[in-house]
Amino acid sequence: MLESAFVKTAHAHQETVKVSEPDDVDATLNNALAQHQLIAIRSADGSDMFFVGFINTLNADSVLLNLIDMTGQFGGYTLCRRSLIESVTTQSDYLQTMRGFIELNRQYELNVQPVLNDERLFDGTTDLFESILRQAATFNNLVHITTENPMLPAMTGYPGALTNGHFIFYNVDDDNQINHVGTMIELDQVVELSFGYMDAYLLEKRLKSTGNL
C-alpha cells in the first residue's frame, strides 16, 4: 500500500550524501538533532548494519535514535557509541523513500504501532548506557546488546544489577529459553543497545506469560 502510494508522489533520484570524517560526523549529528532530520548511521563493526531514524538524545559519548523501520513506522530505540559510527548519511534514495513512507503513515495515522512508545525522553547529561541498563534490570525489560568483545555475539536478553561497572546479561536463546547462568559483561564494552522495539515487546510478553521472566 505504501509503495503504491509513494510512487504516485513527486520524487526523483537523490545522490547519496554521506560523511565519515570525525569532525564532519559530529557536525552532521548536531545538525540532524537541531533540524529533526532523518539520517542513517552505519556501524563500523564490519557487520554492514545500519540504523535509520531521528536523533532523540546526543552527548559526547553516544547517540540515541528513534528508529524508523522499513515501513516508515517507529521501530524502537537504538543507543550507540560514537566510536561505533563509520558514517552518517543525510540524503539517499532510501532516505527519501522512508520520508515518503513516514508522511503517508502520518496521513493514515499509522506512524506508531499501538503497543510502542515513541515519546520517551532521556537525560543526555547522564551515562545513557548505564541509565537504560539499570532501568531494564529493574523492570526485567528485554534489550539487544552488542559489545566490542569479538568473542561475544550480539545478544537479546535482560541485564542483572549493575555493580562496579559490570553486569550479568541473561540472554534468550533461539528456543526462547533464558540462560540463567548469564554472561559477565563490562559496561564500557557495550557499544550498541536496542530496546522498546516490537520483537522485544512480543518476546517479553511470551516469556512473562509462560513464567520464564
What does the model show?
28% of the residues lie in helices and 31% in strands. The chain is of the alpha+beta class. An 11-stranded antiparallel sheet has the order 1-6-2-3-4-5-11-7-8-9-10.
What is this structure's SSE topology?
Blueprint: H1 2-6, E1 17-19, H2 22-35, E2 39-43, E3 50-58, E4 62-68, E5 74-81, E6 85-91, H3 93-108, H4 128-139, E7 143-147, E8 155-159, E9 166-171, E10 183-186, E11 190-195, H5 198-209
Antiparallel strand pairs: 1-6, 2-3, 2-6, 3-4, 4-5, 5-11, 7-8, 7-11, 8-9, 9-10
Counting helices, strands and paired strands, the structural category is alpha+beta
Rounded to the nearest angstrom, the distance between the terminal CA atoms is: 37 Å
Give the oligomeric state: single chain
Which strand order does the major sheet show? 1-6-2-3-4-5-11-7-8-9-10
Elements, N to C (H/E):
HEHEEEEEHHEEEEEH
| Main beta sheet strand tally, sense and closure | 11 strands, antiparallel
**Percentage of residues in strands:** 25-35%
Output the radius of gyration: 18 Å
Rounded mean pLDDT score: 91
Q: Please give the number of β-strands.
A: 11
Q: Assign a percent range to the helix content.
A: 25-40%
Number of helices: 5
Q: What is the approximate shape?
A: globular
Poorly predicted spans: none
Provide a quick synopsis of the model.
The protein is an alpha+beta fold.
Core attributes:
213 residues; single chain; 5 helices; 11 strands; alpha+beta; eleven-stranded antiparallel beta sheet
